[in-house]
Amino acid sequence: MKIVLEKLTKTFPGRGRKNPEDVTAVDDFSCEIPDGELIALLGPSGCGKSTTLNLLCGLESPTSGRILFGEEDITDLPPELRGVGMVFQNYALYPHLTVKQNILFPLENRKGKDRLSKEEMESRVMETARLVQIEELMDRRPKELSGGQQQRVAIARALVKMPRVLLLDEPLSNLDARLRLKTREEIRKIQKKTGITTVFVTHDQDEAMSISDRIAVMRLGVLMQMGRPQEVYDDPLNLFVAKFLGTPPINVFEGRVRDGKLYIGEEAVLPAEGLADQEVFAGIRPEGFILQEDGPLTCELNRVEIMGRDISVIASHPACAGQTLRAIIGAESKVDTASPAVRFALKPGKVLLFDRETEERIRF
Ligand SMILES: Nc1ncnc2c1ncn2[C@@H]1O[C@H](COP(=O)(O)OP(=O)(O)O)[C@@H](O)[C@H]1O
Ligand SMILES: [Mg+2]
């Protein structure tokens, strides 16, 4: 099921003296989510991710704009008629019901022509349980399950309705690091198997990069950029997106363009032909540094971390104030750790320039 958001806006009115200001949680959000894809809605806390999901499932109604599922305008359709499955951060399982009863619950409350026979319900529940691999746990209660198992039950409960759209709001944030990795793989597998168009909310860029077909990056209610993970990483539209994606993060230098060259400090580090003289931010990805004895960028060497396949060089530079510089280079490179300085050449494709004022990308 394709999802289209058209100029979707949600403003919460200010309330009383404590919160006098209106908050526009979702601001003129337009995008198209292709049928069968998994989209990560990525952004910092408070940027409007949950509100966007709540608009999609019908828990909130928009101030303006439209939502389409396929060709159908569902903006004013009540939640139960939208055919969406929703999974929340805190699972929200019924504690007094068994796993099986929890999954059955959404089916038992159906009315009229949507009612299923006992046998149909039973076979749907078992099929869904198999899909998320919890067949052995059907008679337990939620408190007798691990966090990962509880989350799978919550996903089964959302899937048993055979929704047109699956919405997941930070579904992994209550799990420990290892389980988070494993569960995200499982969610991806289940999504691929079922082919259900899925919106997955997260503030974790690594999670977003690793499981989604496309990433939509949000900031202050506004969609900053949407694209394939690698595209958004390689070709960010602005400094915010460049900084939000990537671990270790992009290294941001104050630089300037003079006479068709990029300067960092006093050193011309790259050609920048065709660009007018201007002040810029130069973002250098950690993998954009080449260790080179006579390289143009001279940094103060702080320390070196050996990470098996790679070496992480931690350094500093006056034009990169307030940020510890991190370069990732191949383990075959020899860094002279006794030296106070380290010199780099730069890979042009890994250096991104941004306007100093607007922080918009400058292509060169
Ligand atoms: N019901 C509400 N009433 C007023 N403000 C809200 C409400 N829900 C969310 N907000 C505000 O909208 C903004 C976006 O919130 P939210 O969608 O929960 O962000 P996220 O999920 O990205 O952390 C925040 O500033 C939040 O305080
Ligand atoms: Mg949220």
**What is the name of the CATH architecture of the largest domain?**
3-Layer(aba) Sandwich
Mean pLDDT: 94
Give the class from helix and strand content and strand pairing: alpha+beta
How far apart the termini lie comes to 39 Å
Percent helix = 10-25%
User: For the CA atoms, what is the radius of gyration?
Assistant: 25 Å
CATH class of the largest domain: Alpha Beta
Beta-strand share of residues: 25-35%
Topology order in helix (H) and strand (E) letters: EEEHEEEHHHEHEHEEHHEEEEEEEEEEE
**Are there runs of 5+ residues with pLDDT below 50, and where?**
none
Shape descriptor reads: elongated
Biggest beta sheet summary: 6 strands, mixed
> Which hetero ligands occur in this complex?
adenosine-5'-diphosphate, magnesium ion
Strand order of the largest sheet: 6-7-8-3-9-10
The count of helical stretches stands at: 8
Query: How many extended strands?
Result: 21
CATH overall fold name of the largest domain: Rossmann fold
CATH-defined superfamily of the largest domain: P-loop containing nucleotide triphosphate hydrolases
